[in-house]
Amino acid sequence: MSAKRDYYEVLGVSKTSSADEIKKQYRKLALKFHPDRNQSAEAGEHFKEISEAYGVLSDPEKRKVYDQHGHAGVDGRYSSEDIFQGAGADFSDIFGRGGGGFDSIFESIFGRGGFSSRQQRGSDILFETTVTLEDVLHGKKMEFDLQKEIKCDTCDGTGCKPGTNKKTCSSCNGQGQVRKSRSMGFASFVTVEPCSSCNGQGSIIETPCSNCNGKTKKRGTKKISFDIPPGVDFGDYTVPNEGNEIPGGVNGDLIVRIRIEPHPKFKRDGKDIFYDQDVSMVDAALGKEIIVPTLDGTEKIKVDAGSQPNTIIKLKGKGVPHINSRGRGDQFVRIVVNIPTKLNKHQKNLLDEFQKSFE
Question: What is the model's pLDDT at position 330?
Fold first, then answer.
C-alpha cells in the first residue's frame, strides 16, 4: 500500500493558505470528482482523498497537529469519524444543503459515521444500446431482462438459513471495528481497524442459507424498464440503484451507454440536423419548388432563381429537441447543384449559345 500523499499537495494549496482559500480549492476539486458528475473509475477515490484532506485542514486544531506531526500525528489522535464530524457543516455548505445528492454520495463512499463503518456498494453494470435519430426526436421506452446479482429470496438477503439469525460478534461487540493502542515513546497512539473475526460486519452467520451459501445474494434476472428521453445524445446515462444489488448496503447503478445509429439521409449536430438536396443547374438558375424529407415526414421548400451551390435553406423547428427541455432545433437544407458530366452535341450547342448571350 502506498503512503498517503501530503494533504496540502492533495488539495493543491500551500501551508500558508487561508481557511477560505482551502475551502474554495476543495469546492473546486470536490465538484470535479463528485461521482455523480465524474463517471471515471478513479473519481470515488479522488473524492475520498480530497475530502479527508479537507476534513483535517479545515479544522484549526487538526491542522496544527498535522503541521507538527504529519499523518502519524493525525492518524494516531483522530479516528475517521473525528475527521469528518468536525467538518460536516462545511461539507453541507459547500454542496448546498439537500442538494447534489451530497448525503447519499458520502454515505455510499464513506458509509454512515465515516470510513470505519463504510457501507458496501454493489458494482455498476454497463448496458450498451443503439437508437435511431427518430428515437432521438420522440424518445424511447426501454424494457429488457438484465442478468445481475439480486437479493436472495430464500433468506431475504440475511444470508442465514430461514428460522435462524446472525450472532453478534463477540470480538467487537457488534461494532465491526476494534481499537488498538500502542505506545511510542512519549505518545500513545490509537488505531481503528476492521474486526477480523466478522470482517467488519459486526455479526457472524453461524448457519448459512443453503441457496446463497451465506452470501445474501445470488445471480438472477430482473426486468428493467426506463425511458430514453427525447434529445438524447451519444454518452453514458445513469439509472440509479439498478446495478448489482447488495443487501444491507447500497445497490450499484445501471450505466446505459447510448450510441446513435447513422441516418441514411440526415446528419446531426446537437439539436440541428442537416440534409443535402440535389438540384439541377437549370432548376437552380430558374428556381423551383421541391419536396424534401424531414424527421416528421416531408416539407415543401422553394429554391429561388439564381441559387448558388451550397445555398442553405432553414426549416425552423424541424430538428431534434434539447434533452429535458422544450423546443426543437432546426433542419438545414444545403442545395447541391449538379453539373452534367456528359453532354450531347445539341446540349453543348445550347450552352454555347447561352454563353455567347452574355458577351
Answer: 96
